Amino acid sequence: MGEVSEYVESLDEPEASAVGRLLARAHEIVPEAEEGTSYGMPALRYRDSPLISVMRTKKHVSVYPFSPPVIEALVTDLDGFQVTKGSVGFRPDRPLPDEVVDRLVRLRRDEIDAMRS
To answer: I need a surface site. Which of 27, 45, 79, 91 has the fewest CB within 10 A?
Structure first.
């Protein structure tokens, strides 16, 4: 078991399902991603770079794509969510739409691929 799986198992509901769902989608899109850490957070890593982390915070669940440009590219799709330059926050009862999660993960994957080429 890895850092990400252990973290998800440590959460209570409904956060565990919200975090687990998003990470599972990310892993479906980038099956080569491996569990690890980045900046002290459990994260999926791809090609030795952090792909995404999803964590419970005091007020919501936050998604960290480790890339301000990825968040900037999605800002028009994030109306109503808590957006900072490094994260997107949502409540488990109002999750990020699947198509937004998919775009976020693909954009970050492509960014990593471009850095490694």
So the answer is: 79
